[in-house]
Amino acid sequence: MTTLVIAEHNNSELQASTYNAIAAAKQLSGETVLLVAGHDCQSVADQAAKAEGVDKVLLAQAAFLEHLLAEDVEKAVMAQEGDYSHILAPASTFGKNMMPRIAALLDVQQISDIISVESDDTFKRPVYAGNAIATVKSNDSKKVITVRATAFDSLATEGGSASIENVDAGTHTELSNYVGEELTESERPDLGTANVVVSGGRGMGNGENFEMLETLADKLGAAVGASRAAVDAGFVPNDYQVGQTGKIVAPELYIAVGISGAIQHLAGMKDSKVIVAINKDEEAPIFQVADYGLVEDLFKAIPELIEAL
Amino acid sequence: MKILVAIKRVIDANVKVRVKPDNSGVETANVKMSMNPFCEIAVEEAVRLKEKGIASEVVAVSIGNQQCQETLRTALALGADKAILVKTDDQLEPLAVSKVLKKVVEQEGPEMVLLGKQSIDGDNNQTGQMLGALLGWGQGTFASEVEVEDGKTKVTREIDGGLQTIELKLPAVVTTDLRLNEPRFASLPNIMKAKRKPLDEVALADLGVDTASRTETISVENPPERSEGIKVETVAELVDKLKNEAKVI
Hints:
The complex is a heterodimer.
Chain A: E1 2-6, H1 16-26, E2 31-38, H2 42-49, E3 56-61, H3 70-78, E4 86-90, H4 93-105, E5 111-114, E6 116-117, E7 122-127, E8 132-138, E9 143-147, E10 163-166, E11 176-183, E12 196-200, H5 210-220, E13 223-226, H6 228-232, E14 253-257, H7 263-269, E15 274-279, E16 292-295, H8 298-308
Parallel strand pairs in A: 1-2, 1-4, 2-3, 3-10, 4-9, 5-9, 12-13, 12-14, 14-15, 15-16
Antiparallel strand pairs in A: 6-7, 7-8
Helix pairs in contact in A: 3-4, 5-8
Chain B: E1 2-7, E2 9-11, E3 33-35, H1 37-51, E4 57-64, H2 68-78, E5 82-87, H3 94-108, E6 112-116, H4 127-135, E7 138-149, E8 152-159, E9 162-169, E10 172-176, H5 188-194, E11 199-203, E12 215-221, E13 230-232, H6 235-245
Parallel strand pairs in B: 1-4, 1-6, 4-5, 5-11, 6-10, 7-10
Antiparallel strand pairs in B: 2-3, 7-8, 8-9
Helix pairs in contact in B: 2-5, 3-4
């Protein structure tokens, strides 16, 4: 048995989620092969070769793979000749976008967003916004799986010495072409991997008030997140959203400010180690999952908190 | 152009789901069911494309039991022109759903299939992408903006780092994210009108698609509960707890 992990990267370095997917692959029998498909991304392959748990790196380079569009990644993966028992990718927007195409072409029912490996064919995954955990056994001969990054601690990023092999990159489909991107630029840590996350909700009132949370985040070395309500209201961009259909985070410390705590939001953060809720409504459901709750007007509490740190 | 919108009937988003005592699944008896919220956004987008004169016909399709008729009537009340119910009492997996939808696409000949990016029950986020691959079509997933022009569609997608815009050749599959639009409410006259719109039924078995399950659900359990925490009175107390008790700052 051999597992193929599809690397998520930006053509210069691996995304942290790839290491989590490798960690999940290591819990399966057999070797782990990492496919780096991209453009001008030798540095990614070099980095991947050092990762603990990677036995071999396949490097598929082509100009049309620069933006890793789903249709092209599908072709690059399907061009690989190895016989893989398992194909894994992170359950990020990258993995969610392209992986089901591969599963469909292999005639496999994908298992999405696994949080544990029970055996080579049985996995746990959250359903109903994390309100239930299903244990699912796959009867397909191959398994196609996306991995929830926060559920698998990454292995060492240095020390390995896997071989790197150049492989076929497939062909450009022309079905889809890249037009452009608007990425949120931030000096703060990545929301998905930050040790501390400060999130704001509808209670923030407007986008300007988020500056207060940014100041607090900078004091704590934290990332800034938001509830769906705050994103829908236009206070912050979409990539801030924490929840069932947004980002899943599990930091050491999660501070929810002015967030009521709808189940869809809780689905994205309830695996955080320590949860703090600051909300003036003492009935807010967020307090039911908070380790420390402070019933207080956030406009009074946050400046005080910034001052106290 | 014709648009096909695939919709799913799910437990209403506001219902607190309960795991069955025998751990075989979640309780669905006497639970409020609704159209999956992402599918509602898909219907709304299709109807808006029709109102703009871009789409000529909007066909809604659902796969499920007789009660899915109700969900399809909602789609008709929101502005779909016609509905198709593929009838089955089985719970189909996304792969099977995408194979059935492929069959419907071959029969209906739409130039765009709109779907929700995921359903809020299974949280799989697979069907649209699988359909795209099976049809050999391009896909614009997690869409927050859709423009159609000259046989192409430009889709802005919500991705982890922000927004990405791609251009797809038509026909194509588009899956909706939350910010694509705000679905309208069906007006009473439109609900009445929907009762007279065509709703075709076809038995799943008649489509000749292999929809056998590929997975077995061994058990469904409650997630680990967080123990209830404490309330602190002041910011100073909070900082003290975080420093000295939780030791996280």
